[in-house]
């Protein structure tokens, strides 16, 4: 008998599929289109098990949909711009372009091992000019609409290297430059932004329509952070000026016992502040926004020396400066209500400021609703009612204005980095900012640059890049040396996949409108916010300006879970618990690895990778193989008259299970159903003695079909062995006969000593003996009655089986 040898048959089929272009899609046939992709990877150089966990199940979805009759497009690309290539260049003295190309070559080979049904002719690499040229085009479209603009923004700045640093390049307790150890300062620089805030309402509004995990929708909504409140003016004592605050709780205004402003607030220029306050402001300027949020618990702050007048009570209340108030949110000033706001409460305790309760409810700080007290004429009202009333009253007095605030800022897209898409702008002394004409795109990124250890972008040291001609006056101009955030690259690549060879346009809109949106997008939860938000924004922009006819880029989204090391901990080189997929393929084969990844747990949860586990799925495939080979050598002796109901019912049942489970991406239960089915076949084989009844051909061909999306290679081989043509992967998904399943079977509750302990499924015509027998074989029941003797049995056909045992046998 032929042995199952995946290391021979897997590469064989991969070659045959590739050479026959089996998975190349007919783009002209859009009636049944199904566009499913994983999130494309950054080419770090090694395909790790997390990639497999994203890509293999995505391919299973693609193969399943194809067999269900869909015209499926699935492909793969590389998100190849970004900082790691620059770091590698500095560490190893290799050009980012070369390093990236080498990594892509390695990963492409590793990707082949997955046995995925990619149509590689739709692939793309974002660091190639034929892609990033269209990034530049996109930038210009946004610019023409006023949605790409330049403005000052605070950045991390190393005064020694004279360079901007990303947050992760600011290290240590004292926030020093990762390269030279100099303390990092915050500096305002001109940066490029995309005006995503023009789309805020739609970005929230459309969330409802999406077939996405609720968790992701909530994260997006929180990130956008829509908050309805009021702007209220507080006069500043002794100045002809006022402090404006943003509050969502104007009903607590009688409890505002002090004010807090951000260290950056302009009012501080007008108050005469002490050196202590100046020092505090300077220190706050050194912290990043993230650190300020983290350090919030300390509630540091200083009294500014100034006072404001609470417009509700006319009390003079002190103005404090504290870095828990963020300059970029609301007005950068708050009315502090320590009785009803957690942060204000902590601050008041620490700095011994008065706390005045104005809402009845629980223990302070009480942030809920309740009856208003100590609030003048408003006392006695419910807090929501007061909110409306006090807002109205203050608006009438010209002291307040209703306002909706968002946490979402415009998208800062410029990076003072080399390995990214050059921004297509030049600066002319005479004409100012000038866009590079579309016909002159791409602005090519030089691929042979020198990395000075200064950390400065090598582009700034390349006169041949920087020197440009002004498109307006033809005079000399300077080219923009900032490059784009790589999130720009990934914000529309799924559209370019569809028309990736187009050298006249970013894409042909007619093709996009036929094939997009993506029907199913699968990837990690780490992209729940930024990548998806940016892709949604760019899609809406293209809809408004470039004829795209849909609102959202990804109809359905699935997030996979995380694979842990065999020890149950996060995989890391340091811990030595990293599982290398190449080695797993070598030892067990691609199909076993794919199957195991989908069997180990619910897909959105992941779990620990165990060697025993993959050995188990390999054993399962061995059993499938052996059974099929045994059948093949016995089938000539088939006996047409043999009874085959059991085989047939079991087969129809497993089709239904796997079909239903796959549609819901319940890979693990689908695989478990196939395992149960194979066990059942082995049991039937043992009873029949030989594999002679005609039902076996049906059972085994069906099994290969069901296995095909999961373990495509062994399925193809056995399909051929069973005499089937053409490829199992272009054939149809098996259908089940609903009647055969439901008519032939019934569910019975099993009682032990009067309590329902299990449910069993038995043939509909079972008599009492058969039902009792089946009940005793149920694992749960078997365990319960293990050391007991049955005294009496009881049977209600279609309803239940009841077992009564003797009290413990002595
Ligand atoms: C008084 C008050 C009383 C507040 C109370 C809350 C509870 P969201 O919902 O997130 O928009 N706030 C306003 N600007 C701030 C800033 N720049 N930095 C830090 N906090 C700021 O939060 C709005 C609330 O956050 C505002 O309502 C304000 O505190 C605070 F019982 O005003 B509240
Ligand atoms: Zn000019």
Question: Which key terms come to mind for this protein?
Answer:
810 residues; alpha+beta; 7-stranded mixed beta sheet; 4-stranded parallel beta sheet; 27 helices; 19% strand; globular; binds ligand ANZ; binds zinc ion
Per-chain topology:
Blueprint (H helix, E strand, L loop, with lengths): L5 H14 L13 E6 L10 H19 L3 E3 L9 H10 L3 H17 L16 H16 L3 E11 L4 E3 L4 E2 L4 E2 L7 E10 L5 H6 L8 H11 L2 E10 L5 E6 L10 E4 L5 H4 L4 H12 L2 H6 L7 E8 L6 E6 L11 E4 L5 H10 L31 H14 L3 E6 L5 E2 L1 E2 L9 E4 L3 E4 L27 H4 E3 L6 E4 L3 E2 L1 H4 L3 H4 L12 H7 L2 E6 L6 H16 L8 E6 L2 E3 L16 H8 L1 H10 L6 E3 L2 H24 L10 H19 L3 H22 L6 H13 L4 H10 L16 H7 E8 L2 E9 L4 H10 L1 H6 L5 E7 L3 E6 L5
Parallel strand pairs: 1-2, 1-22, 10-12, 22-23, 24-25, 26-29
Antiparallel strand pairs: 3-4, 3-7, 5-6, 7-15, 8-9, 8-11, 8-14, 10-13, 11-12, 16-21, 17-18, 17-20, 19-20, 26-27, 28-29
Helix pairs in contact: 1-24, 3-4, 18-19, 19-20, 21-22, 21-23, 21-25, 23-24
The structure holds ligand ANZ and zinc ion.
Characterization of the model:
The chain has 810 residues and is of the alpha+beta class. It is built from 27 helices and 29 strands. The strands form eight sheets. Strands 8, 9, 10, 11, 12, 13 and 14 form a seven-stranded mixed beta sheet that branches. The radius of gyration is 34 Å and the shape is globular. The model has no long low-confidence stretch (mean pLDDT 92). It binds ligand ANZ and zinc ion.
């Amino acid at each position: 008998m032929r042995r199952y040898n995946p290391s021979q048959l897997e590469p064989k089929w991969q070659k045959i599929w590739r050479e026959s272009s089996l998975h190349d899609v007919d783009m002209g046939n859009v009636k049944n289109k199904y566009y499913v992709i994983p999130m494309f990877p950054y080419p770090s150089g090694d395909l790790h098990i997390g990639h497999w966990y994203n890509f293999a199940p995505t391919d299973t979805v693609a193969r399943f949909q194809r067999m269900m009759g869909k015209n499926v497009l699935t492909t793969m690309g590389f998100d190849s711009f970004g900082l790691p290539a620059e770091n590698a260049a500095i560490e190893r003295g290799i050009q980012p372009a070369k390093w990236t190309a080498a990594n892509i070559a390695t990963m492409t080979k590793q990707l082949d091992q997955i046995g995925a049904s990619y149509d590689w002719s739709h692939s793309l690499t974002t660091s190639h000019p034929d892609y990033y040229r269209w990034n530049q085009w996109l930038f210009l479209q946004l610019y023409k609409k006023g949605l790409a603009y330049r403005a000052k923004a605070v950045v991390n700045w190393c005064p020694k290297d004279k360079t901007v640093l990303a947050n992760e390049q600011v290290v240590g307790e004292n926030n020093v430059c990762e390269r030279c150890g100099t303390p990092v300062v915050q500096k305002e620089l001109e940066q490029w932004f995309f005006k995503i805030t023009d789309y805020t309402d739609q970005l929230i509004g459309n969330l409802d329509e999406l077939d996405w995990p609720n968790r992701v929708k909530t994260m997006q909504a929180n990130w956008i952070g829509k908050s309805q409140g009021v702007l209220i003016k507080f006069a500043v004592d002794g100045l002809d000026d006022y402090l404006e605050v943003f509050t969502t709780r104007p009903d607590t205004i009688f409890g505002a016992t002090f004010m807090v402003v951000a260290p950056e607030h302009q009012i501080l220029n007008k108050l005469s502040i002490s050196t202590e306050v100046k020092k505090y402001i300077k220190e706050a300027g050194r912290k990043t926004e993230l650190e300020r949020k983290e350090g919030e618990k300390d509630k540091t702050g200083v009294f500014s020396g100034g006072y404001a007048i609470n417009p509700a009570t006319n009390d003079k209340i002190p103005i404090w400066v504290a870095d828990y108030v963020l300059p970029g949110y609301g007005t950068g000033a708050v009315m502090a209500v320590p009785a009803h706001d957690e942060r204000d409460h902590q601050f008041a305790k620490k700095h011994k400021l008065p706390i005045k309760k104005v809402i009845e409810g629980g223990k302070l700080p009480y942030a809920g609703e309740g009856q208003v007290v100590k609030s003048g004429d408003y006392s006695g009202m419910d807090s929501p009612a007061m909110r409306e009333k006090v807002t109205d009253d203050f608006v009438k007095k010209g002291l307040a204005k209703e306002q909706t605030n968002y946490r979402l800022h415009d998208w800062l897209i410029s990076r003072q980095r080399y390995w990214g898409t050059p921004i297509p702008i030049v600066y002319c002394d005479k004409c100012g900012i000038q866009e590079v004409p579309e016909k002159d795109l791409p602005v090519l990124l030089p691929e042979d640059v020198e990395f000075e250890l200064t950390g400065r972008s090598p582009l700034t040291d390349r006169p041949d890049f920087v020197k440009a001609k002004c498109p307006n006056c033809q005079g000399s101009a300077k080219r923009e040396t900032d490059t784009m955030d790589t999130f720009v690259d990934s914000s529309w690549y799924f559209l370019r996949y569809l028309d990736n060879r187009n050298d006249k346009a970013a894409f042909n809109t007619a093709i996009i409108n036929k094939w997009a949106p993506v029907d199913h997008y699968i990837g990690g939860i780490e992209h729940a916010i930024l990548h998806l938000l940016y892709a949604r924004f760019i899609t809406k922009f293209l809809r408004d300006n470039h004829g795209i006819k849909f609102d959202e880029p990804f109809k359905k989204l699935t997030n996979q879970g995380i694979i842990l090391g065999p020890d149950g901990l996060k995989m890391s080189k340091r811990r030595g618990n990293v599982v290398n997929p190449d080695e797993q393929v070598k030892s067990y084969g691609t199909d076993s690895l794919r199957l195991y990844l989908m069997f180990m747990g619910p897909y959105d949860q992941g779990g620990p990778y165990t060697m025993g586990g993959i050995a188990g799925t390999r054993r399962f495939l061995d059993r499938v193989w052996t059974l099929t080979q045994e059948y093949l050598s016995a089938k000539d002796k088939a006996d047409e008259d043999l009874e085959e109901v059991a085989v047939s019912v079991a087969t129809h049942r497993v089709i239904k299970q796997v079909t239903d489970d796959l549609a819901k991406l319940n890979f693990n239960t689908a695989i478990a159903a196939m395992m149960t089915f194979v066990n059942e076949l082995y049991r039937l084989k043992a009873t029949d003695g030989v594999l002679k009844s005609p039902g076996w051909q049906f059972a085994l061909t069906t099994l290969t079909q069901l296995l095909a999306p999961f373990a495509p290679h062994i399925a193809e081989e056995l399909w051929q062995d069973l005499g089937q043509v053409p490829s199992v992967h272009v054939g149809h998904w098996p259908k089940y006969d609903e009647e055969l399943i439901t008519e032939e079977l019934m569910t019975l509750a099993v009682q032990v000593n009067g309590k329902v302990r299990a449910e069993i499924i038995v043939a509909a015509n079972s008599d009492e003996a058969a039902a009792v027998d089946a009940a005793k074989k149920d694992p749960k029941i078997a365990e319960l009655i293990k050391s007991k003797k049955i005294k009496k049995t009881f049977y209600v056909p279609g309803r239940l089986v009841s077992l009564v045992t003797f009290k413990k046998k002595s």
